[in-house]
Amino acid sequence: MSGKFGLGNYSSRKHISISVPSSTEVMSPHIKSVEELRVLGINLNSFNTPTQFFICVAGVFLFYLIYGYLQELIFSVEGFKPFGWYLTLVQFGFYSLFGLVELQLTQDKRRRIPWKTYMIIAFLTVGTMGLSNTSLGYLNYPTQVIFKCCKLIPVMIGGVFIQGKRYNVADVSAALCMSLGLIWFTLADSKIAPNFDVTGVVLISLALCADAAIGNVQEKAMKIHNGTNSEMVLYSYSIGFVYILLGLLSVRGLGPAVSFCSQHPVTTYGYAFFFSLTGYFGISFVLALIKLYGALVAVTVTTGRKAMTIVLSFLFFSKPFTFQYLWGGLLVVFGIFLNVYSKNKDKMKLPSLAELRKRVLSGRKVRLLSQEV
């Protein structure tokens, strides 16, 4: 009986082997929550939360400030403005190459996020970067940046519809301040900028809508599938490269762009390489911010970087200036402050009106007593 059912022969039994991976091995993304988060070889998990945030913010500011300078420098080359989509094609090509190299250096080379999701992200990425680059042919660079500073508005809208988020009064007030500041800045630019064109406003507005969706889709995909930064960059930009290449071939825009850039290789391809390199490094830190703190925090940090980019643009590149730029920009900055405050109410307790009145009255009493003495 025992032989019939295989109970007496130990070697005939079938066994199920369950192995627990070591700390250096990679577990399934669906059951794993302790994977190392590396950015440019830096293991962020080895630092505490404030240090992680500081490293990400420093990386975003450093690389994207250089990125913004090089972007304006490329478009300052005479005759290059019509070739914004070709610059985006070159940029996507470099990003794909950098992503492939970084992915080969990691232990886990699996694709975790579905192809369908990557095709959507690639389409949105092409929209935001291609339209943003092309808008510089119609807008002053600071105006383009101030529009991108207000990405919080469509991000909030996208958060409501894509992730079902709800926002408080401070967030809504921040969006309104940004909108008013944006209108003010744009009206000032339309009066004094020699190359202002409504087409640029339409292009950058469409870019913002795509950008808003990207942050929310990336955040959702990375949380569900636990995808890595290098994987996200490689697949989304390589698919986007194919999209742009097919688009340029269909409208016959590839030949003139290649011809022009071949005549100015250093100021086009040379600048584009470092432009893409710094942009790739910056994207790595932005994706880390999204994964650690969410899309809204990442947008707030990148918005602060863009505000600094505007200041540097006026310092390094000659262009007309009016104080309406300043007032509109300050209104946008105030909107950013409201947004940051709404996320850190416990740490940033502002005094109420009654407390402010009490402080003013006590200050007056102190001054009167000092005068009497």
Automatic annotation (TrEMBL):
Source superkingdom: Eukaryota
Record-linked PANTHER family: ADENOSINE 3'-PHOSPHO 5'-PHOSPHOSULFATE TRANSPORTER 2, SOLUTE CARRIER FAMILY 35 MEMBER B
Compartment(s) of residence: Membrane
Organism in which the protein naturally occurs: Carassius auratus (Goldfish)
Single annotated GO MF: 3'-phosphoadenosine 5'-phosphosulfate transmembrane transporter activity
Transmembrane segments: 53-71, 83-105, 117-139, 145-162, 169-187, 193-214, 234-251, 271-290, 297-317, 323-341
GO cellular component: endoplasmic reticulum membrane; Golgi membrane
Record protein name field: Adenosine 3'-phospho 5'-phosphosulfate transporter 2
Pfam families according to UniProt: UAA
Cross-referenced InterPro entries: SCL35B1-4/HUT1
Stretches of the chain forming a coiled coil according to its record: none
Membrane topology field: Multi-pass membrane protein
